[in-house]
């Protein structure tokens, strides 16, 4: 919303605020006390409402729901238009507004558009002369972004954010004015409205008349399933920055691109018994982080330390929270050239909790610490304005010059360009669009090109390769080149000293320090062919994000229609047609008809076998799905099997259930739910263990079990539920298990599979007290697929990358039957593509099953050793999951 729209809404806001105003009718005073910084000696503008005057309670007394937080922010924007502008930049999946607050001095507020234009010019040093850059550096304020509560239950940040806004909008003191004169502050007051709302409401339901029970065992401190940390779909939005699966993240990154801050601080919470963390972070630090931005950590650490020392508050640096994975809230700004930082405050859980040292940590305490750190950050940014703006500009320039010179040796030390052919079932188009959404410049070849010395990013050896016209080219010599390289390079190299320390820690029995995955290159996750070159590639800039789509409505097919498998669009079309009661067939063998060739696994719609509305349905659904559909005038093929053959089998319309509820892995559930809702666009029904025990499976054809430990699934289902699942599968149901849930499928007591976990994968199966083998911390590995399996329909590559992220490994049964081992890890010598491996990791997983299926009675079980839906990042694996859902009962 613009400031103008806020003025238009003012009467409505007045009505909305009546209840809160009656609860706290005293007017704001010039000497009002700041709830999070009492006795700060600051004079506040009485025209600007205090948080208490709108909320009805002091900041920190309770968790503020979204509607009240939004009301307060709106009231401040209306009361202080000379300093504050409020924008609605998006809406969550649950319809809540995603807000952005821009605060500046009265002078800078009047020239805000001019400042933003200057900030955008500073993003691209290729367009600036030395004089232009010097002038910009002299006049541009430091742009500072503060983000609060990206995890729903890390809620002290949202309270602190309101406190920061009040001080910035109402403070009349010299310190506030100095900050406003030298900075433009972007506040993201609540990064995860949906998750935070679950937390606020859950705590409110459990809160007694005496407040929050402080005993750590109280249920108020453990949220209801699936927990409030994640988004509507239970995603961790702090790992969604470059993926942008959610509207909240897309709005956030759009703000970054529109303003390109010089400083960014993301305020989080950590364990209750900790203190406060701010950077520098622990090792490892990704080598693409710009040195000048990294050096900036020390200036902000000094400012934060001074603020905390003045209060006698404890804090620490470096011991935890590495900066290796590029998808965090501090990583994205860092790779763009800003000083990006994560702050972590010990959590007050349900609002007040007793810690192991006997002290009580309250929400007010936690919010006060975050407020102090945020304010110290603004002070440091203002005091070092010239350095911040200069360092940002220099980091953007060095991204270009480093790439031209060959960069700072990670992986391919002389990588200059990445080339991605377009004809890859739409995945290359989607990858290019994702890069552009992150501000990365994408180009296209305008003629067929031969790359003389190209290195494939995940399969094959270096050599000459021909790429067709329209291939995407990412030249790393660009202002956003550090981010481009971090997302595209085949290997992010860990510092050798860190690796040495990890081996020593393992020798002494300590846990590893890997905070997230160690491989994420987009060519792996999208399963696309891509090549790296040592020099630039002739190409032109793409100005409009590409979109893979069909060619409009197909012509009328007198015999019917056919469409190829393997793309997200084809899966969406298949699901939509089935939901529309259109009968669809699956052709297991390749065929050619009417001059068109279709790969094995193509889908067929026969006009005569459907009602007269089939033509309109196919046309409409194909356009909606963006799928390419070919009309057919005959079933007589020129090669392959005729379309009326008995081998061409009908696809059942699956009624899909997902196991949900207490004990079930919430994140994995959310990833699968998102895949159905947003990618496949196919309805599902969540059911809990009690419903399974009660016989609800009789109304479904497919049950998806999210990643959950075997022991937890035994507790969720109990003996009765397990027996119901067994009976249902044998009667024709399709059971799909994801990641750790496959370990439950692989137990003898489950009685549904001959698959077994290696005896050293679980302590219960090995020698009592024997150490478990070390986990693989998110490495990219190579699997080999059975090209004849319907589960790999549309997967054109014999081998493809997946994520290895854990310690559980499965063994191939001695009596394996044809078609059961759908995909297995490559032999030990070839299995690792990228990421960290322990010395024995390759030998443990080499040759082990990754995707397994077997017939059980009239039904089928399908087990994934990993989670194909993880974070919506491994999009190249979505066809495998979709095939399991739609085709599990066809073979």
Structure explained in plain terms:
By secondary structure, the protein is of the alpha+beta class. The chain folds into four domains: 3-400, Zn peptidases (Aminopeptidase); 406-541; 560-650, no CATH class; 656-887, Class I glutamine amidotransferase (GATase) domain (Rossmann fold, 3-Layer(aba) Sandwich). Helices cover 34% and strands 19% of the residues. It contains 27 helices and 38 strands. The chain is globular. It starts with a helix and ends with a helix. Residues 66-337 form the Peptidase M14 domain. Keywords: Signal.
- List the domain count as a whole number: 4
Q: Give the CATH level 1 class of the largest domain.
A: Alpha Beta
Uncertain segments are: 1-30, 408-412, 763-769
How far is the first residue's CA from the last residue's CA? 53 Å
Keywords: Signal
Signal peptide: 1-30
Pfam family, one: Peptidase_M14
InterPro entries: Class_I_gatase-like, Peptidase_M14, TAT_signal
How are the elements arranged and paired?
Layout: H1 3-16, H2 18-23, H3 51-55, H4 66-79, E1 84-91, E2 97-103, H5 106-110, H6 112-122, H7 130-139, E3 142-148, H8 156-170, H9 174-182, E4 183-188, H10 193-206, H11 247-259, E5 263-270, E6 276-277, E7 282-285, H12 291-311, E8 322-323, H13 331-336, E9 339-346, E10 352-354, E11 360-362, H14 363-383, H15 385-405, E12 417-420, H16 427-437, E13 443-444, E14 449-456, E15 463-467, E16 472-475, H17 481-488, H18 496-507, H19 522-525, E17 531-533, E18 540-541, E19 560-563, H20 568-579, E20 585-587, E21 591-593, E22 596-598, E23 602-606, H21 614-625, E24 630-632, E25 639-640, E26 649-650, E27 656-659, H22 666-680, E28 685-687, H23 689-693, E29 702-705, H24 710-730, E30 734-738, H25 741-745, E31 756-757, E32 776-785, E33 799-806, E34 810-811, E35 821-825, E36 832-834, H26 841-845, E37 849-856, E38 859-864, H27 878-887
Parallel strand pairs: 3-4, 3-5, 5-9, 7-8, 27-28, 27-29, 29-30, 30-38
Antiparallel strand pairs: 1-2, 2-4, 6-9, 10-11, 12-16, 12-17, 13-16, 13-18, 14-15, 14-17, 19-23, 19-24, 20-23, 20-26, 21-22, 21-25, 31-34, 32-33, 32-35, 32-36, 35-37, 37-38
Helix pairs in contact: 1-4, 4-8, 8-14, 9-14, 12-14, 12-15, 20-21, 20-27
Protein name: Peptidase M14
Domain Peptidase M14: 66-337
Signal peptide: 1-30
């Amino acid at each position: 919303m613009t400031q103008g729209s806020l003025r238009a809404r003012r009467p409505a806001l007045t009505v909305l605020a009546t209840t809160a105003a009656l609860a706290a009718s005293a007017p704001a005073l010039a000497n009002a006390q700041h709830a999070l910084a009492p006795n700060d000696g600051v004079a506040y503008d009485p025209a600007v409402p205090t948080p208490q005057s709108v909320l009805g309670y002091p900041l920190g007394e309770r968790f503020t729901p979204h509607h009240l937080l939004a009301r307060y922010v709106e009231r401040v924007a209306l009361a202080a238009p000379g300093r504050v502008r409020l924008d609605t930049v998006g809406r969550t999946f649950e319809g809540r507004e995603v807000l952005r607050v821009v605060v500046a001095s009265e002078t800078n507020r009047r020239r805000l558009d001019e400042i933003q234009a200057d900030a955008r010019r500073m993003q691209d040093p290729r367009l600036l002369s030395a004089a232009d850059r010097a002038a910009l550096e002299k006049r541009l304020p430091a742009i500072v972004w503060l983000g609060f509560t990206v995890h729903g239950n890390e809620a002290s940040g949202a309270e602190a954010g309101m406190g920061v806004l009040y001080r910035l909008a109402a403070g009349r003191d010299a310190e506030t004015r100095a900050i406003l004169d030298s900075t433009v502050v972007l506040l993201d007051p609540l990064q995860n409205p949906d998750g935070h709302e679950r937390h606020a409401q859950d705590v409110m339901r459990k809160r007694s008349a005496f407040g929050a029970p402080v005993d750590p065992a109280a249920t108020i401190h453990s949220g209801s399933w699936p927990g409030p940390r994640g988004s509507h779909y239970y995603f961790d939005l702090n790992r969604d920055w470059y993926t942008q699966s959610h509207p909240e993240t897309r709005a956030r990154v759009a703000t970054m691109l529109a303003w390109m801050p010089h400083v960014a601080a993301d305020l989080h919470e950590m364990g209750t018994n900790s203190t406060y963390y701010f950077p520098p972070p622990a090792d490892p630090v990704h080598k693409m982080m710009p040195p000048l931005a990294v050096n900036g950590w020390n200036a902000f650490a000094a400012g934060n330390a001074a603020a905390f020392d003045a209060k006698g508050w404890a804090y620490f640096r470096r011991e935890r929270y590495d900066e290796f994975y590029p998808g965090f809230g501090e990583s994205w700004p860092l790779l763009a050239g800003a000083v990006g930082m994560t702050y972590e405050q010990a959590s007050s859980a349900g609002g007040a909790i007793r810690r192991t040292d006997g002290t009580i940590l309250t929400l007010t305490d936690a919010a006060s610490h975050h407020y102090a750190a945020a304010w110290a950050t603004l002070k440091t940014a203002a005091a070092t304005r010239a350095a911040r703006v200069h360092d940002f500009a220099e980091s953007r320039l060095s991204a270009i010059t480093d790439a031209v010179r060959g960069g700072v040796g990670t992986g391919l030390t002389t990588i200059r360009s990445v080339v991605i052919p377009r004809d890859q079932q739409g995945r290359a188009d989607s990858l290019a669009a994702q890069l552009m959404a992150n501000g990365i410049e994408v180009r296209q070849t305008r003629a067929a090109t031969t790359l003389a010395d190209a290195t494939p990013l995940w399969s094959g050896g270096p050599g000459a390769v021909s790429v067709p016209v329209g291939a995407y080219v990412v030249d790393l010599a660009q202002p956003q080149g550090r981010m481009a390289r971090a997302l595209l390079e085949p290997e992010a190299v860990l510092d050798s000293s860190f690796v040495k320390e990890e081996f020593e820690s393992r020798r002494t029995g300590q846990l590893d320090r890997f905070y997230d995955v160690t491989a994420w290159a987009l060519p792996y996750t999208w399963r696309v062919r891509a090549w790296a070159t040592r020099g630039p590639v002739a190409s032109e800039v793409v100005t409009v994000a590409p979109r893979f789509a069909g060619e409009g409505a197909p012509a009328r097919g007198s015999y019917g229609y056919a469409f190829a498998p393997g793309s997200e669009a084809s899966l969406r079309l298949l699901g939509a047609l089935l939901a529309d009661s259109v009968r669809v067939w699956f052709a297991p063998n390749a065929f050619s008809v009417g001059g068109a060739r279709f790969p094995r696994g193509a889908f067929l719609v026969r006009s005569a076998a459907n009602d007269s509305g089939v033509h309109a349905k196919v046309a409409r659904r194909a356009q909606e799905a963006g799928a390419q559909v070919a009309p057919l005038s005959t079933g007589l093929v020129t090669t392959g099997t005729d379309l009326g053959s008995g081998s061409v089998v009908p696809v059942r319309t699956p009624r899909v259930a997902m196991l949900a509820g207490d004990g079930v892995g919430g994140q994995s559930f959310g990833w699968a739910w998102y895949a159905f809702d947003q990618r496949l666009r196919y309805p599902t029904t969540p059911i809990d263990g009690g419903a399974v025990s009660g016989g609800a499976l009789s109304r479904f054809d497919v049950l998806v079990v999210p990643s959950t430990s075997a022991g937890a699934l035994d507790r969720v289902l109990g003996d009765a539920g397990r027996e119901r699942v067994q009976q249902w599968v044998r009667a024709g149901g399709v059971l799909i298990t994801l990641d750790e849930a496959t370990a439950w499928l692989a137990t003898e007591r489950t009685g549904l599979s001959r698959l077994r976990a290696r005896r050293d994968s679980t302590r219960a199966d090995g020698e009592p007290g024997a150490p478990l083998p070390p986990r693989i911390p998110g490495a990219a590995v190579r699997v080999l697929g059975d090209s004849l399996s319907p589960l790999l329909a549309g997967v054109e590559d014999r081998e493809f990358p997946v994520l290895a992220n854990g310690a559980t490994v499965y063994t191939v049964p001695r009596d394996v039957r044809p078609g059961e081992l759908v995909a297995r890890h490559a032999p030990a010598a070839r299995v690792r593509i990228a990421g960290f491996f322990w010395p024995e990791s390759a030998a443990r997983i080499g040759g082990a099953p990754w995707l397994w299926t077997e017939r059980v009675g009239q039904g089928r079980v399908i087990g994934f050793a990993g989670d194909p839906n993880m974070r919506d990042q491994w999009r190249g694996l979505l066809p495998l999951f979709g095939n399991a859902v739609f085709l599990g009962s066809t073979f």
